[in-house]
Amino acid sequence: MRALVYVEPRKAEFQEWPDPVIHPGEGIVRIHAAGVCGSDLHIWLGHSPALPPPRVLGHELTGVLERVDGETGGLIPGDHVTVFPHAGCGECRHCAAGHDALCPRKRTILRNFGGGFAEYVRMPLKNLYRLSKDTDFVEGTIIEPLACALHAIGKCREEKVPIAILGAGPVGLLILQVARQLDFPKIAVAEVRAQRLAQARDHGADLAVNPQDPESLEKLTRFFGDEGCFVVFDAAGVSSTRQFAIRLARPQGLVVPIGMGEEISAIDFAEIISRETRIEGSIAYTRREFESAIRWITEGRVSLKGWVSDAPLAEGQAIFNDLVSANSSRIKAVLKV
Ligand SMILES: [Zn+2]
Ligand SMILES: [Zn+2]
User: Fold this and answer.
1) d(CA 98, ligand 2 centre) in Å
2) Residue 14 and residue 337 in contact, taking contact as beta carbons nearer than 8 Å
3) CATH code that applies to domain 147-279
4) CATH class of the 2-142+304-336 domain in this structure
5) Which residues lie at CB < 5 A from ion ligand 1?
């Protein structure tokens, strides 16, 4: 088959790659569209030593089930499907909760099955979810990042509280739209790039500020008033946003780091201690959240207008280069196979 192969840091080539070999209990999916995630770019930049090249990336996938080997749970070849990319052991407490990404014995699409920037992928059948044939393949790739946003929003212990979102990339814009749909009363977004700030305004932010503006913290403080900001989602994940999040959350407030712009950051623990800040990371989603994300996309509850664009898989290298450049006009790219 043809695949976009990550061959060395900052280099992916569209080339021949071995076809996946089906195992019992698995299906082979003919991929139609594959979203480019921040984590794919992180690996492509060479920042993930556990996932060295050569390798096929991509885990936000839609396609058509082509072949099966085993009990299909109702799926039949020809069904349109999306892929749940974490395959837990099925026995531990995390798997029981449907949160396969936390399973200590999990297998993942990138580590164990081969990624989806390719014509075909193999996955366990219990990791394939049927999509309505009316769902556009490109739109369907947003199910996975939307599930991440639903999981992050689920970290709010109290419902419908004032929140801030740092970073208006794909996950930030999805958290924003989910919070808006769920009637959160006050939503502020901080983002340095003008185009992304405009997207945040278009998609429902009550206040959108550039954190490089020296008055941004004051504007946010005024916006949240005496009750303060209950929850801050850091969808960027660099030292400056992590520190900003801790400063912005009200005493006993919650900071939810979800973006992984960098792995290690220096942050001020005196502020965390003196304000009793809670920090709770957010990774992936449960199966139930993934199923809700399928419904949200099927029902057209999130808008992809202005921030999702597609390109042919063969152009992947150019798209990756563009996405990591500081002046890219792309926010979310989906590769069509
Ligand atoms: Zn993703
Ligand atoms: Zn498990």
Assistant:
1) 9
2) no
3) 3.40.50.720
4) alpha beta
5) 37
